[in-house]
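Sample intake — ABC transporter permease
Collected from: Caldimonas caldifontis
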Amino acid sequence: MKTRSLTLAVALALAGAGSLGTSVAFAQDKVQFFPSLTGRTGPVAPNATPFANGYADYMKLVNARGGINGVMTLVEECETAYATDRGVECYERLKGRHGGATVFQPLSTGITFALTEKIPNDKIPMITSGYGRSDSADGGVFKWNFPLIGHYWVAGDVVLQHIAKKEGGWDKLKGKKIAVVYHDSPFGKELLPIVQERSKMHGFEVQLLPVPAPGVEQKATWLQIRQQRPDFVIMQTWGVMTSTALKEAVATGYPRERMFGTWWSGAEPDVRDVGAAAKGYNAVMMQHGAEFDAPVVKEILEKVHGKGQGTGPREEVGTVLYMRGVVGAMLAVEGARAAQEKFGKGKPVTGEQARWGYENLNLTQAKLDSLGFKGVLRPISTSCADHMGSAWARVHTWDGSKFVWASDWLQADDQIIRPMVRASADKYAAEKKIQRRAPSDCQS
């Protein structure tokens, strides 16, 4: 399994570190290990690569800022090619390295499902921002899972809210037909419950169109769409599947302005090959979009790429999926920082201690702004019961050359989603014979 370390060397450049030998000793004594499961090869490579680059670059920026209260970050990558079995192998390989893993971010719903069975025994938390199990927002059952800042049901609800608003209200969706083109895998199927729930509430018809992985064969799918002419198409796609869908939509004449991707279906690699023909295509964003003017982006360009230490191409910095990697790294670091406040400031934390930090995140707007995310993210606050911490999103639209915001901030409806999360978590607990956490297990 291919692995590589990316960020420890940045610690050597810190002011006051002394001679090279002293720097190495200092860095090795105080390291916080963040394994990175990457998809630089395979069907999602164009999308997963910028995520991995953003993740690594932010960790380098943290070290350039002085680490986590002096504790240096260390990233080691292991390539999964988006395959569940390889993801599990990477997890087993990395979990005990460099003093033990702080947190895993698998960037795959299939890998997330597999690791959910393992992490309670290993006492290592897992962040799955925008993917994985939607029901893992329930910290009472999923003690080690953290779908921070959103999951698929948030994405689906926000997309439907946006469509309803454009049509003039939920009542205008009655009798309409919404097709869902989805990756025929746990990733694709995770979206369906919220769409089906809203369908029952508002009287629109749902047409389910599964597409086998990797998603490059969609002619039959779009023939069905051409024949049945749904009013809208929602796409739960990832990697080459998204650009393939857009090309088929162009070929069959389906209006791109009536197509809505979820947040893994709306980045630059998805539309680059289609170009102007994709104009009008929409996708919901997990708060951020492309953020070339964000303070954190400017700081990465100055302190990481400006020093010749960038992980990928400079022009990629600030793109949608690069930013998703940056956000993922920030959440990983801030959970460890929160854990230090309880277990020892300036000391590396264990995975078990980091788990407490992710469950007690309080990223206020002032804190986010100070980290460089002004205008990019809204406050995030987790608890024992709520392992998601925020349900805000926005929709952006491809104008033929770039993505532009097409909605104000939207928030998923907690009155609908919370009971769904609870019911699904309870079902999982019953199947796995897991007891809900006692109140004593939730005390700070």
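Post-analysis note: The mean pLDDT is 93.
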